[in-house]
Design brief:
By secondary structure, this protein is of the alpha/beta class. It folds into 2 domains: 3-41 and 171-268, Rossmann fold; 44-170, Rossmann fold (3-Layer(aba) Sandwich), CATH 3.40.50.10090. Helix content is 39%, strand content 17%. It contains 12 helices and 10 strands. The chain has helices at residues 21-29, 50-57, 70-82, 100-108, 122-129, 149-156, 175-184, 198-208, 215-221, 232-240, 254-263, 265-268, and strands at 11-14, 34-37, 42-44, 64-67, 94-97, 137-143, 160-170, 192-195, 226-229, 247-248. A 5-stranded parallel β-sheet has the order 2-1-8-9-10, sandwiched between helices. Helix 8 runs parallel beside helix 10 (232-240). The longest helix is centred in the first third of the chain and has 13 residues, at 70-82. It is elongated, with a radius of gyration of 20 Å. The two termini are 18 Å apart.
Length: 270
């Protein structure tokens, strides 16, 4: 069977933010999947840029700058330009990126990335930096709500860590009606739902109004659907919600997630 038809007749729901869904959707469609996009998450500007701008105007004070997402890179770059700064403002500092997409976003702006862990999760960032940051000052630009693994562990390692809000993630209310209608339609109901972060998991169930339900009821709402996770942190959140993980990417990237779904193609519709 040709590679492009490996996911023929497989319906996949992609819940990434609207401006980020194209890469995952395109990868799945290249294998013949029928993709529906309903965003579980929306990226917004923070209510105030005060803390981010203050940090950017004082970049000389930082030995390390850590970026954990493409959204963080984009927000940081927008504010640099607004403040009349450029990549030269970052040249004195060492840069850490959580994974290849974040690294590429930085390199696209001409920024050299000094550190990227082999596994693209916060714990791996800490492992790489733990012995490098004692007595140094670290700037972490991230979403308003995020796991505190990096700042808490690096502080334990002797670093001074400033965490600044670069953007926030919210639940797109317009997605609720569409999502419920999709799951209620037998002819359009997805065989697979993709999750690319813990936020997409929590927001998915919030959109369904299922957060307050028992684990048994949440599973019943999605009976017969396989959950595909981008990696162990997202999978852990699914388990906290009482869900099974049917597919998990070995490489915690969008291409890795696509490949994991393709690999499980024989079991998806059975």
């Amino acid at each position: 069977m040709p590679v492009k038809n490996q996911l023929q007749n497989v319906r996949v729901l992609v819940g990434r933010a609207r401006h980020q869904a194209s890469a995952l959707s395109a990868g799945l469609r290249a294998h013949g999947a029928k993709v529906v996009e309903i965003p579980f998450i929306e990226i917004r500007k923070p209510r105030s840029y005060r803390t981010l701008d203050t940090a950017l105007l004082n970049l000389r004070n930082y030995d390390w700058i850590i970026l954990t997402s493409v959204n963080g890179v984009n927000s940081l770059w927008t504010r640099l330009r607004e403040l009349g700064l450029n990549k030269k403002s970052l040249q004195h500092a060492k840069i850490a990126a959580i994974g290849p997409s974040t690294k590429k976003a930085l390199e696209d702006h001409g920024v050299h990335v000094n550190v990227m862990p082999a596994q693209y999760v916060a714990e791996a960032v800490v492992k790489v930096l733990r012995n490098k940051v004692k007595g140094e000052r670290v700037l972490l630009a991230r979403a308003k709500v995020a796991r505190d693994v990096i700042p808490s562990e690096l502080r334990r390692a002797g670093a001074v860590v400033d965490v600044v809000e670069a953007y926030e993630t919210v639940i797109p209310p317009s997605s609720s009606k569409r999502l419920r209608a999709l799951l209620a339609n037998p002819s359009r109901r997805p065989h697979v739902i993709t999750f690319t972060s813990s936020s997409t998991v929590k927001n998915f169930f919030a959109l369904l109004g299922a957060i307050a339900q028992t684990k048994a009821k949440r599973n019943q709402r999605c009976e017969g659907i396989q959950f595909a996770s981008i990696g162990p942190i997202t999978s852990a959140t699914l388990r906290e919600m009482g869900c099974n993980i049917h597919i998990e990417a070995k490489k915690y990237t969008i291409p890795g997630l696509v490949q994991a779904i393709v690999k499980k193609k024989n079991s998806i519709q059975n």
